[in-house]
């Protein structure tokens, strides 16, 4: 069995095992064991990748190609580079952390964990696919369970939030499908056969008129999931109603499919179209960065604050990609990883606070550092990492983005870069206000004097996320070098046009 297909097979086997479990304890142990195996596989893949990369300079490693639908030349084609490997590792970490944070889930636990694992299966499949059609199928597999996860296990106006999220993402998928088919029907522009294979299409000179038409469709299809302004409105509502683990996977992993798809498909396969449209979409991305930060300042619900912060930080990923600078691109991938870990950790902490105080309103919270010192300390650390303090993952990611973006000599890009940099100040405002108000302030509710202590499984989930955040900040070179080496083929393919 090849090393990559296991990322599909193991979650599916875990789902089948969950079907036959009885009771809460069996369900969560089965989900935990399956997720632990996935994390072990991701760790093994990193080691195997470095060994193989030392002797193999192919764009994609561990490739496998099996015919799926011969008539349309659709293949089960898989392979990874350093970017894919890093995102697979991120997914494995957040899935396992989500299982631990959901340890007390008592409402249909078997069905809940099955839905989580279906989502993760789609994400894994998306990151390893190098066939456009197969990638699109896994994309839909990842998105569809969100409706059930929010609609069944959510809170507040969960039906509205689940329906809004589903309709907007399905609308994005419809636009994306048109873009994918447009690429497919122009993949024989040099006289070859029609193909969905990304590596083969990249060698074809797709006509400029086709690129100009299908790039915005492909970009928007993915950008809806990446929370591009003004198509971001599904995200705050979805986060606010979703259960904790779903918010963690949603913001930490699922939304990364948008930026990854833009980079791997829209920009790599349609570089001329990307350059033609970049000025328009980079304005929207820059607006999203600032708007998300100011939106977070205006909120009083902890989940809404983190959701708008996610819109801002994911806007930086799209902004960096559209600068066409290799340092900024490196920063975009690092930001995807950093944001995934940080936002998942924030949602985990918010879920733990809500589970004990039964409120997410910052005006009703205070003095949590006294009553919940572990949660308080980690919350402060996470907040400092989120606003880009050196020594944490956020700093190395944002520095690459801003330095790379400012290397563009024209006034247009530099003004937008300065605008994006200003979001750091706004981020500091809402992070420090939160820390001061809910952690350091006086205890507002007398019932908050004696709150339940943090459990071992909650601490395990938190540390699974916190350790990589610090690791990325302290020793980023190996990860940055792995990503930069994988960017080289894309730099040659896109920047040389």
UniProtKB/TrEMBL annotation:
Q: Which residues cross the membrane?
A: 6-24, 31-50, 74-100, 112-130, 136-153, 165-185, 213-232, 253-271, 277-297, 304-324, 336-354, 374-396, 416-435, 456-479
Any idea which UniProt keywords this protein has? Membrane, Transmembrane, Transmembrane helix
Q: What is its main location?
A: membrane
Single Gene Ontology MF annotation: NADH dehydrogenase (ubiquinone) activity
Q: Where in the cell is it found?
A: Endomembrane system; Membrane
Membrane topology term reads: Multi-pass membrane protein
Provide the GO biological process annotations: ATP synthesis coupled electron transport; electron transport coupled proton transport
Give the domain of life. Bacteria
Stretches assigned to the NADH:quinone oxidoreductase/Mrp antiporter transmembrane domain: 130-416
Query: Could you tell me which InterPro entries the record lists for this protein?
Result: NADH_Q_OxRdtase_chainM/4, NADH_UbQ_OxRdtase, ND/Mrp_TM
Q: Which GO terms describe its cellular component?
A: endomembrane system; membrane
Alphabetical list of NCBIfam families matching this protein: NDH_I_M
Q: Which family does it belong to?
A: Belongs to the complex I subunit 4 family.
Protein name, as recorded: NADH-quinone oxidoreductase subunit M
């Amino acid at each position: 069995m090849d090393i990559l297909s296991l990322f599909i097979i193991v979650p599916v086997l875990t789902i089948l095992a969950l079907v036959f479990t009885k009771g809460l304890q069996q369900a969560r142990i089965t989900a935990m064991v399956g997720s632990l195996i996935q994390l072990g596989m991701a760790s093994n893949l990193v080691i195997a990748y470095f060994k193989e990369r030392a002797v193999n300079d192919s764009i994609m490693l561990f490739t496998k190609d099996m015919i799926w639908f011969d008539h349309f030349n659709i293949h089960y084609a898989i392979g990874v580079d350093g970017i894919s490997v890093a995102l697979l590792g991120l997914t494995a970490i957040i899935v396992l952390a989500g299982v631990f944070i959901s340890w007390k889930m008592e409402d249909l636990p078997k069905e809940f964990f099955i839905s989580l694992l279906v989502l993760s299966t789609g994400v894994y499949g998306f990151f390893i696919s190098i066939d456009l059609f197969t990638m699109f199928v896994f994309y839909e597999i990842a998105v569809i369970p969100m409706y059930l996860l929010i609609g069944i296990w959510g809170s507040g106006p969960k039906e509205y939030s689940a329906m809004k999220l589903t309709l907007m993402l399905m609308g994005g998928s419809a636009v994306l499908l048109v873009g994918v088919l447009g690429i497919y029907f122009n993949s024989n522009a040099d006289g070859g056969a029609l193909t969905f294979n990304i590596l083969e299409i990249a060698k074809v000179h797709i006509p400029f008129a086709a690129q100009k038409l299908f790039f915005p469709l492909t970009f928007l299809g993915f950008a809806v999931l990446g929370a591009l302004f003004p198509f971001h409105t599904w995200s705050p509502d979805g986060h606010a109603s979703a259960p904790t683990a779903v918010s963690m996977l949603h913001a930490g992993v699922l939304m990364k499919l948008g930026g990854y798809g833009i980079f791997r498909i829209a920009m790599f396969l349609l570089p001329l179209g990307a350059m033609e449209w970049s000025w328009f979409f980079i304005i929207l991305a820059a607006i999203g960065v600032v708007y998300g930060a100011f939106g977070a300042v205006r909120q009083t619900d902890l989940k809404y604050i983190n959701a708008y912060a996610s819109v801002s930080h994911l806007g930086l990923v799209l902004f960096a990609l559209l600068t066409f600078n290799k340092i900024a691109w490196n920063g975009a991938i690092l930001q995807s990883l950093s944001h995934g870990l940080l936002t998942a950790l924030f949602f985990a902490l918010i879920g733990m606070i809500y589970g004990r105080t039964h409120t997410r309103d910052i005006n009703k919270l205070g003095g949590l550092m006294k009553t919940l010192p572990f949660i308080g300390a980690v919350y402060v650390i996470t907040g400092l990492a989120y606003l880009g303090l050196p020594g944490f993952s956020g700093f190395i990611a944002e520095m690459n983005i801003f330095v790379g973006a400012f290397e563009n000599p024209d006034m247009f890009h530099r003004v937008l870069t300065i605008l994006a940099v200003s979001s750091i100040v706004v981020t500091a405002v809402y992070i420090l206000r939160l820390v001061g108000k809910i952690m350091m302030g006086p205890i507002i509710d007398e019932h908050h004097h004696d709150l339940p202590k943090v459990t071992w499984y909650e601490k395990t989930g938190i540390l699974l996320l916190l350790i990589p955040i610090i690791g990325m900040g302290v020793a980023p070179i190996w990860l940055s070098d792995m990503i930069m080496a994988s960017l080289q083929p894309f730099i040659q393919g896109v920047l040389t046009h």
